[in-house]
Each structure stands twice: as C-alpha cells, then as structure tokens.
Amino acid sequence: MAVTIRDVARASGVHISTVSRTFSAPHLVNPNTRTRVLACAEQLGYRPNRAARALITGRTYNIGLIVADIANPFFPPLIKAAESQARKHDHHIFVADTNEDAAVEEEVVRALAKQVDGVLLVSPRMSNALIEQLSREVPLVVVNRQIAGIPAVVMDVARGARIAIEHLTALGHRRVALVSGPRGSWTSREIRRSATATAKTAGAELTIIGPNPPTEVGGLTIAEDVLRAGATAVLAYNDLMAIGLIEGLLAAGARVPEDVSVVGIDDIMLSRLTRPKLTTVATPTAAAGRAAVDMLLAHGDDRRTTAQIHLQTELVIRDSTGRA
Amino acid sequence: MAVTIRDVARASGVHISTVSRTFSAPHLVNPNTRTRVLACAEQLGYRPNRAARALITGRTYNIGLIVADIANPFFPPLIKAAESQARKHDHHIFVADTNEDAAVEEEVVRALAKQVDGVLLVSPRMSNALIEQLSREVPLVVVNRQIAGIPAVVMDVARGARIAIEHLTALGHRRVALVSGPRGSWTSREIRRSATATAKTAGAELTIIGPNPPTEVGGLTIAEDVLRAGATAVLAYNDLMAIGLIEGLLAAGARVPEDVSVVGIDDIMLSRLTRPKLTTVATPTAAAGRAAVDMLLAHGDDRRTTAQIHLQTELVIRDSTGRA
DNA sequence: GACTTGCGTGCAACCGCTTGCATTAATGGC
DNA sequence: GCCATTAATGCAAGCGGTTGCACGCAAGTC
To answer: Would you say domain A59-155+285-312 falls under CATH 3.40.630.30?
Structure first.
C-alpha cells in the first residue's frame, strides 16, 4: 500500500540501508547515489515512517501537551505557540484535555508516554509527588508549577497578585475579596499566598472565596458571596471568572467599578472586549508555550535539565477598577 | 529502560506471544494464564507500545486534527469535543495549526499520514482537487466543505446566512454589507451565495467587502469601508470579525445597533459577553467535532464512507441588531 | 608491488509487537 | 482404548526502519 524504504531501494538499485542512510546520515553516502535515491524517493512519494524509526532510535518526534480545558481561552494561545514552535523543530503535538481532572491527567501521561519524546503538563492539577513519579517514566516539563528537580516554566503570578492588590489598596479599597481557583492549582495557591501577604502589609482585609471552577459560570455564581462579604474590590483567579463575576454583579444591581472593582488574571483576548474592559494581570502564555517546548527539546540532547524559567507578569489597567 | 512485552513474558513464565494475546485476543488464552500475565503486567507497569503494534496492524489509534487557527475562538470547542470523543474510543489526537495557509495544510496532512488512522480537516483552505488527492493517501473527514465522494460534516451556514439577512430586512434594512472571510473558505462562498440570493429576493442591496482575514483585526480595519458603503446593516463572516467591526464602528462614532446593525456567525463564547451582545448565527461546533470523529472511526471498519452529515444552524438574536 | 587507509555499500540483527502455523496436551465420541 | 477434536501455547517471520560490522575496492605510501 504505502511506499516503504524497500520500494525506494528496489527502484534505485541499492540496499535499504543505503536508502536509510540517505535520509538519516547523508554524509555517509556517495553524492551520486544520494541524488539517485532522493530522486526515486521523490518520485515514489516516499516518506520515512517515523513510528518505525522511533522503535530503534527511541525518538518519536512527537510531544504531548496536556491542558485542563481547551475551551478555556487561557490555553489556546499557549497551545498555538507550542504547536508552532514544535513544528518548527519538526515535531508534532498530541493535545489532551483533562477537564480539570487530576486522574485523567495521570492516565493520559501514561497513555502517551511511549509515543512521545516528552510531555508538557500545563497548569497540572496532580500532586507534586505524582508528577515526580511520572517524570521518571517520561521527560516532563511543567508549566505553572514549581517542583524541585522538575524542569518548569512558571509565570510570576505571585508578583502579579501583589501588584494587583497594591493597585486596589492604592485606590483606597480596604475590604478585598480573593476569588480562588480550582483545587490542586499551584497558581491559585501562589496567588493566595502573595495576595494575603500583600493585603496584610497594606492593612487591608482579605476574604478568600473558593475553591471554584475556573470558568465564567464559576465567577457568576459567587457574585452574591462577594457582595455579602462586603468587599469593594475583587481579585479573581482568572479573567474568565472575573468576567463571569462582573456579569453576576451587574445582574445583582451592583455597578462595576463604581461599587465594586474587579481585577482578573491572564489577559485573555476577551478581557479587552467586554464592557467594562477588564483590568487584569497579563501572563505571557504564548512565550510560556514556546519556552516549554524549547526546554523539552533541549532536554532530549543533554540529559535532564532541571532548569526553571520564570516569566514576568504585568498589570494592565483598564476600566473595571476605580476608587473605593 | 521501559518495560516491554518480553519483561512481562519472562516474569510470568510464558512466551511473548501469549502475553500479546492476553491483551489483544484474551479469549485465546487460558483464564489462569491470563490472570497471571495481567498481574505481572500490572506489577511491572507494562503498557503495550502502540507504535510498535501499529507497524503490524496498521491501526495507530491516533487521529490528526488540522485547523486554521487554534487561537480563533471558533475552534477550541470543536477541538475539545473531538478530543473528548476520540479519547472515549481510546484514540489520541494530533493537533496542527496551519495559520490559514493551504500549503501548510498539505504538508501537515502528509507528515501526519503515516502515524494516524485518519485526518480531520476543519475548514480547510486547500483546493478540492488537492483534498481529493490527499484522501487517497489517508482517510480524511472534512468539516465545513462539500466535495463529492469525501466524507464530510457541514454546518448549514447557507440557511444561517439566509435567516440572518431575512432578520435584517425584516427590520427594515435595505442597504446591507457582507463582510466575507478568507480566500479558500467554502463557508465564506456559501454565505455569499446564500446572502446574495436572499438579499435579491428581499429587494435589498448587498455590498460585498472582502476577502478579509477572519479575525478581530480583520473586522476592525474594514469599519470605514462599511460606513463608506452606506450600509445600515452588516453580516460578518464570523463573530470575531463582527466584534472587531463593532469596535471599529464605535471608534468611528457610529452607534450599534442604532446606526448600524451587526450580525455575526458562530456564536462563540465571546459574543454573549461583549457590549452590545452580539446577534449571531449559532453553529454547532462541538457537535461537528464529535460527528467528524465518529465518521472517521466508522470509516475504519466498513471501508470508505462517503456520507455527509448536515448540522443545523440557528439565529440567536441579541442586542447588536435593531430597526433601520 | 605489497600494504595500509578509508570510503561506500551490503549484510543481518534488532526495536516491540502481531499472527499464521505447528505442536502438545487434554477432551470427547464410540 | 483409540482416534479425531479442540484448547492453549510456542515458534518464527515480518511490520519499516536503523546501525555495528565486514567487505570490496581505489587511492596513497614506501
């Protein structure tokens, strides 16, 4: 059916090993032979079967990319950047969606392990211990999590949360709510830690609401909790929740930002387009995707990087925050 | 390094072929043996290597999914649904982003062909002829394109465009602009054909603007073309362009919907959240993703489906349209 | 002219797994 | 009690490649 190395060998009158070398070690074959083999291959439409090659070389030229929810606008730019970067290096990407479920994450990593050179775990919900264990089975790069000995790309959300809280307290807010994210999220813990410390320093009261599903609906449903807490400002785990929250607040008759200021995190495309436009902490998702792929590929060459790359975040002030 | 079928065979004291059968043809092995083998496999953490298996069986349990732009909010729900459906049937998904480039599409299909059971081509920009040729090299299911003999899932945008135009003319609009999509898009041609016919019937004048890149920026930059054309209503190729267009119109001092009514297509999440909320033609993207995967998998069993599935669209009236 | 050198190629084993066929042992029929 | 079945397992070839090794041969050395 499909054209194999043997067809090319037959057509060009050489042994299959010569054809093989034409592709994977061209300097070992005579230029004339090489030209002839390439011509035959071209004419027959031959393409090496990567899976077969991987059986021997151990390199699949595939990467696994595992995210919690493809439909969450935070992920697509990261996926896109990772895919692009991977393909630039002639790799293909398996994408899996775990629906925020740690058990699915584990299962998918294991299922993919044999047919990839490594796995990118983006915003994992698994425990550190499990990630460490899996990283012994397949090269892993983690995005948005810090674990000793595991290569990682982390966005500095702690700083982002600090700046966001400082922005709010500078506007005079003294009762601030923190809408936290899903259980198992390292990012959510970081935000919480940093926001708590910053609020304390600034002498503001911080009410923590959560954990919550990191979606628009998650934000919408806690609007009344926020009002009940008497908060005049809110920092949400991500933009989607912030936007949902604003919907909920408006529906409950509160004005944004006159009655309640809202800050999101991520700076997804959406946040420029809603009304009011969302003040948010921009995270460099595309850069993270590229960096993670680069780490994974470097990983392959010199064994076992454990480097951790930090990417900076910044506050983008728009229209959803105002004076207390 | 990794545990192979031989390790399991050694541990359980049987031949590798028995281990193999334990997994792929359990009824052929004695229940006692089977239990023992499974226990050993479990204990060693054995997982069959799918790539190796595929070498013989020809079934990879992988699917390729090719889209024009992952970051375009139209695609993620489709990708998510497809991935979910695929995994339900124990398949994994390669995702590739072509950046709206037909040449990249072709290259990726070919690159993926050997390691997948089939490819889903979503909103392809390639020519029909090329798609037909590729479909002889690897099973293909196309979404949003009709080609004789190629299995497809199509959303009935023609009807959607008709209803959208009827909605506008019923509101009294007589000068309507159609903001078309990217070159090579079947959907864009369908919309154009249907909108043109409907406008004619309704006695409205239709100005076609485009082709344009199917993005927010694409919509933004043609706002003045729309105003110059004197249109009081616009149907845009997709929501993203409609939203960009509204931004542009507002920036130019026009009110929406008082001065200009805008209708989008797709009903992406965004369209519920912008102000004004977007009137749009909802397309069943998640259902399309699931259906396409189902077709591809069915394809594998009985050879060569050529069925085409049609999915209905419907108009969602929100706040971006009003009387002329 | 015999001897090293090294280039280009072929040979064959092997990667992890499947599968048609052969082999063996156990079962049933009469 | 003997033969034909059948069930369970082993054997080995082969899927499409890669790669260490050996071989042949022309060129260079003295």
So the answer is: no
